[in-house]
Write a structure and sequence with these properties.
- The protein is an alpha+beta fold.
- 33% of the residues lie in helices and 18% in strands.
- It has helices spanning 68-71, 168-174, 194-210, 233-243, 248-260, 285-288, 303-318, 321-339, 387-406, 410-430, 456-462, 468-478, 511-523, 527-543, 575-589; strands at residues 6-7, 20-21, 26-35, 38-47, 53-62, 81-90, 93-101, 107-114, 119-123, 127-136, 141-150, 157-158, 161-162, 211-213, 219-221, 385-386, 432-433, 438-439, 442-443, 449-450.
- The strands form seven sheets. It has a six-stranded antiparallel beta sheet, with no helix packed on it. A three-stranded antiparallel beta sheet has the order 5-10-9, with no helix packed on it. Strands 16-19-20 form a three-stranded antiparallel beta sheet.
- Helix 4 (233-243) packs parallel to helix 7, helix 9 (387-406) runs antiparallel to helix 10 and helix 13 (511-523) packs antiparallel against helix 14 (527-543).
- The longest helix has 21 residues, at 410-430.
- The protein is elongated, with a radius of gyration of 27 Å.
């Protein structure tokens, strides 16, 4: 930033008769750095004039302590109470503490340490202001530093150095040290394409940032910033899959976490069931008071088969048989959930119907309330059987059959293989639309097909449940003008009644969705379509301002060299969007490894 014309302050040094500080005299930079659990702020003001200038700066701080679900728009009948701001000064550092006592009885606080001299001008429950008068010599830079820590006051130490003594350049050189957590090893991926290299570097940085230590030995990739900064079952599992074979330690951590947290009992409020993999786990005030069910919440029909798919893939790449032995009892519990709780009506398909009054209506990856519909736009009613979930179940049972054989359980291995083949036959009978050469999105509560063209059928390629002929037809649909926008494959075809390119799941484009489709195209040797889709995603990377893929973007048709229209509140970084870069690279290179 820079300055507008500013009046000369009383007491300012001689300034050659000037009546103002001219615009564009001062360069103003604000640098925010997150390190561990603290926020380091530097306001750097550079005076490019040949004379000194006196400035008055106002510094405002405040906090409402809103739960993230309040920020997202949920109304609460009651809230806790904001505590009076507290100030103290010691060791030359002034600290303002803002605090809130929640309805859960927990006190939450933010400690704002001003590492510069200032005077208070206003104090209120929500907002506190300070001002400072500072002189900047000609051609010099003034650094105004603030440290914010949460719940517990932290010393001003940045990577072992005194934050107060560091220049901006020194901070920037030290910052990459925070990316070292041992999970990425020494692998370095480089190509002869500068765009690809930049995209890989940024994707790796995003994954590192989202990895959060859940316990002494487990790191889990949180789903995305700002809305989904928490463990998500589906997101973590798919992200870990995308990063295989590059970074298998992440998959090991994810599998550890999901198998330790399998459902133990049946509870309607959280949609928990024995052997079920969780969907979302929040730890804020509203979760603690059970105003929301994410404590954790288990409303996800696909996380359980995805965990078994990841397990098989992880063992195929690592031969980590010690971990397999430790996880095997939990994996069998997950299989039991698929057979008993996941298929309540025993029709052979995994289905869902929410039990929690505040839970998710739709429990596949497209979990918006309006994401499953019929051709005329009517919403499908539960219990709903999604096409891609059956493909996940098929692949999960195939993989578990191999693992059972590896463990010497030939009876279980043969039974699981038979069940997988039976599921494929049943799927072909109920989900395949022979007239269109496409896959129905879902079957509704009356077992009537949702006959719409969607990206979900692309996941059936990834699940390997289709015949080669069916796969060829599905790939052609996915790359047709109705589904392929030029920037990627839409979640819903633009010929459908419910299509909206600005919706979350009914016409937008999701990179992770496309990355799984890419891998499915590789399985079925759809090389031309794979290349066309990969080039589209690379084009999105090239047109972005930071060489990153967002959570999603709008599904408008590509026009010339214009970038895709952003989805206004998309997360960036998002774990499985960053992971898409690695899975796309794997698909293009054709890397695979079999367990046998």
């Amino acid at each position: 930033m820079t300055n507008r014309d500013l009046p000369i302050l009383a007491g300012a040094p001689a300034n050659s008769g000037e009546s103002r500080i001219r615009r564009d005299t001062l360069l103003i930079r604000r640098i925010l750095t997150l390190h561990e659990d603290s926020l380091f702020e530097v306001l750097a003001i550079r005076n490019f004039d040949s004379i000194p200038h006196l400035l008055q700066l106002e510094h405002w701080a405040g906090g409402n302590f809103d739960d993230v679900f309040e920020v997202r728009g949920m109304h609460r009948e009651k809230r806790g109470r904001l505590l009076p701001p507290q100030e103290d000064s010691r060791d030359g550092i002034s600290t303002l503490t803002l605090a809130y006592e929640g309805l859960d009885g927990r006190k939450r606080s933010a400690h704002i340490q001003r590492l510069f001299k200032s005077e208070k001008i206003r104090i209120a429950p929500h907002l506190v202001g300070y001002f400072s008068r500072m002189e900047i010599p000609p051609k010099e830079t003034l650094l105004i530093k603030t440290l914010v820590s949460f719940d517990e006051k932290r010393p001003a130490i940045f990577h072992g150095k005194d934050f107060r003594e560091l220049s901006v350049n020194e901070m920037m050189s030290l910052a990459p040290q925070s990316q070292q957590n041992g999970l990425f090893g020494e692998l370095s991926i480089r190509s002869d394409n500068a765009l690809v290299n930049r995209a890989i570097e940024n994707a790796e940085t995003d994954i590192r940032m989202l990895l959060t230590q859940e316990d002494a030995s487990t790191y889990y990739p949180y789903a995305g910033v700002p809305w989904f900064s928490a463990p998500f079952g589906r997101d973590g599992l798919i992200t870990a899959y995308q990063l295989l074979p590059w970074y298998p330690k992440i998959a090991r951590g994810v599998l550890d976490y999901v198998f330790k947290s399998l459902g133990k009992s049946s509870e309607a409020f959280t949609d928990e069931q024995p052997g079920k993999v969780f969907h979302e786990f929040r730890r804020g005030e509203m979760a603690a008071t059970r105003e929301i069910p994410f404590i954790p919440y288990y409303g996800s029909v696909d996380s359980t088969p995805l965990a078994l798919v990841l397990l098989h893939e992880y063992i195929s790449w690592t031969r980590d048989f010690e971990s397999l032995g430790r996880w095997w009892p939990a994996a069998l519990q997950a299989l039991e959930w698929m057979d008993l709780w996941g298929d309540i009506d025993r029709d052979g398909f995994l289905e869902y119907a929410k039990q929690s009054p505040t839970g998710l209506v739709n429990q596949g990856w497209k979990d918006s309330h309006n994401s499953v519909m019929h051709a005329d736009g009517r919403l499908a009613h539960a219990p709903i059987r999604l096409c891609e979930v059956q493909a996940y179940a098929f692949r999960a049972k195939q993989g578990m059959s191999q693992l059972a054989r590896l463990r010497g359980d030939e009876v279980r291995a043969q039974r699981l293989r038979t069940e997988a083949l039976q599921l494929r036959n049943l799927f072909n009978d109920r989900f395949w639309n022979s007239a269109k050469g496409a896959v129905h999105l879902a079957l509704d509560g009356d077992s009537k097909p949702c006959d719409v063209l969607s990206s979900n059928m692309g996941h059936c390629l990834w699940g390997k449940i289709l015949s080669p002929e069916q796969a060829q037809s599905v790939s052609a649909h996915l790359m047709s003008e109705s589904l392929f926008s030029g920037h990627g494959i839409r979640t819903l075809a633009d010929t459908e009644e419910a299509f909206n390119p600005m919706s979350y799941h009914n016409g937008s484009i999701w990179p992770h969705d496309n990355s799984l489709i890419l891998e499915g195209m590789r399985y079925y040797e759809q090389g031309a379509h794979l290349t066309q889709l990969a080039l589209a995603l690379l084009g999105v990377l090239e047109s972005s301002d930071d060489f990153r893929l967002p959570e999603l973007y709008c599904g408008f048709r590509k026009r010339g060299t214009e970038p895709p229209i952003p989805y206004e509140v998309a997360c960036k970084p998002q774990a499985w969007a960053a992971g898409s870069v690695f899975l796309m690279l794997k698909s293009l290179l054709g890397i695979s490894r079999d367990l046998d």
